[in-house]
Design the sequence.
């Protein structure tokens, strides 16, 4: 269970309170495992902080109805086959973003950084929860771990009615495939991940459909940890003719202390030049948090402060570039 309160110095935006809940259930079989993931979320304020600065709360509005209200949904329901030689194959309703571009200290908005730019690479056009498969071959000795994800290009949140029936309509115009592949070298102190992806559906880029453009990109993740300190670096590039974000780089640092966990992160996203106004074309996200354990370490309270800069994106005419300081408090309890 997660609850988040945020306020900002931007007078246009109201303070915002959001909540979410996640339930996981697994059933082990002789040669596989079932996974069921049920997710619930409230709707963020339409004039709240995340309406003006979408990255500041990676947990806001994770489940919404077609009318924009909060809701409950089955987000994942799949079966993993345990194959020979440390290989697995997952089929069903999956989350593609959970299997590529992963990091040890910057991957979970419920316990790591709240800002979405530290959860996943901004250049990767991940679909929402969708039908697909994940193949993994675990690493051994010098052989890297290999992951291949293939799924529909549209997830539940990407369909008009946010329904499973829409998800099954594979022949609808504008539908396509998301394909991603990555290799990982994981050691005690360091981790290296590289990968590539493509998405061939007609994507809506600020009101214009990119029917003739295939979106694609490459990414890399470096992680390091030693004792109480850990570091994460992400970078990525995407097709500037089919993507809002064409370049991305982020650095995150974490330190364990006797009182809790300190996190500091900075991310820069280069917006495609054809989409921005005459001002800057970089979005800046930065965050500092301190996670304090409570309830016998089964929960935590995390105060945080973020500074964000958002460029004006054409064809919208909302005015000049925006920047804000956002203060937040997150409560999380796992049981």
Sequence:
């Amino acid at each position: 269970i997660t609850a988040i309160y945020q306020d900002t110095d931007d007078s246009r935006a109201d303070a915002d309170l959001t909540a979410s809940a996640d339930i996981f259930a697994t059933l082990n079989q002789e040669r596989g495992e079932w996974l069921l993931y049920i997710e619930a979320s409230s709707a963020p304020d339409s004039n709240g902080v995340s309406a003006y600065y979408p990255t500041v709360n990676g947990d806001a509005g994770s489940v919404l109805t077609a009318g924009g209200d909060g809701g409950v949904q089955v987000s994942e329901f799949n079966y993993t086959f345990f194959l020979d030689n440390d290989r697995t194959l997952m089929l069903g309703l999956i989350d593609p973003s959970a299997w590529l571009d992963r990091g040890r200290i910057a991957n979970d908005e419920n316990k790591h950084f709240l800002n979405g730019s530290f959860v996943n690479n901004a250049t990767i056009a991940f679909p929402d929860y969708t039908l697909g498969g994940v193949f993994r071959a675990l690493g051994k000795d010098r052989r890297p771990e290999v992951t291949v994800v293939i799924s529909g290009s549209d997830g539940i949140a990407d369909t008009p009615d946010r329904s499973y029936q829409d998800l099954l309509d594979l022949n609808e115009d504008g539908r396509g495939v998301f394909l991603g592949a990555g290799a990982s070298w994981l050691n005690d102190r360091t981790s290296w991940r590289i990968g590539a992806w493509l998405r061939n559906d007609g994507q809506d880029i600020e009101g214009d459909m990119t029917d003739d453009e295939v979106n694609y990109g490459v990414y890399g993740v470096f992680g390091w940890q030693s004792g109480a300190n850990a570091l994460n670096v992400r970078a990525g590039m995407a097709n500037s003719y089919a993507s809002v974000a064409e370049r991305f780089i982020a650095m995150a640092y974490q330190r364990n202390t006797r009182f809790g966990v300190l996190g500091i992160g900075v991310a820069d996203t280069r917006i495609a030049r054809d989409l921005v106004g005459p001002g800057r074309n970089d979005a800046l996200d930065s965050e500092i948090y301190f996670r304090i354990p409570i309830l016998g370490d089964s929960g935590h309270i995390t105060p945080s402060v973020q500074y964000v800069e958002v460029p004006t994106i054409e064809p919208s005419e909302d005015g000049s570039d925006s920047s804000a300081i956002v203060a937040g408090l997150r409560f999380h309890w796992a049981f």
Q: What stands out?
A: The two ends are 9 Å apart (CA to CA). Residues 314-320 have pLDDT under 50 and may be disordered. The first helix runs from residue 49 to 52.
